[in-house]
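Researcher: Sequence of DUF2189 domain-containing protein follows. Predict its structure.
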Amino acid sequence: MSIHLAEKALIESRSYRVRALPLLQPLAWLGRGWRDFMRCPLPGLLHGLAVSLFGALLVAAGWRHFWLLIGAFTGFLLIAPLLVTGLYAISRDLERGLSPTLHTAMSCWALRDGRLVVFGILLAFAGTGWVLTSALLVTGLVPRHLDTLEDFLRYVVLAPEGLVFESWLALGALLAAPVFASTVVAMPLLLDRPIGVMGAVFTSWKVILEHPAAMAFWAALLMGLTALGMATAMLGLIVIVPWLGHASWHVYRDVVDGSARAGRDG
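Model: Prediction complete. Tokens:
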């Protein structure tokens, strides 16, 4: 990225102020997300079903290659903000007093400027990079094939020496943390406002830097609920994915103040 583009992105991000945020505000986001889901359930259920089926297919295809499967699942978490973009559009219309439909969710991908597509490609690269890195780390440090969950638990998680699992977690956190910081409000901001991709990313980082504790709590809720959905043979994701997708819209609306920018855009 050139210096000129970086300066432009910084100027764009400064147009969006970050509001004060109580530590437990993430619980309110979950409540509002559930309310939106209940008001317009069909698009959310279809999103959740699609993710659940994809997860089931991933397990079926990679069950005998668990060393790759575990990386694929964690990589999936990196691109999740992209997959629920349509649900942000649903929540936005509900907020405006409109009656959104499945078409509302699908039409958000018809943006001519392609910013969501560009950001999606970047997230896909990040997710793919983690899958490959995870596979290389595990296969490089473990002196045998990991074909099953039992193998992964025995030779990685419960390995008596080598710190394989600790290294895997540390490397995953090292990649996941900046991706989370770059996406926590970026996707709904791109959907809602005429801001560039890097401007949205810088705004997202600003939210993290100003409210690290509350956003760490939100990240923990995201990971915990997603893990719960996966632990129920993927069935829980049918509900959890739309719930968290709608809640993520309210993260953006609560934290990012674009009133000054709105005046210029209008």
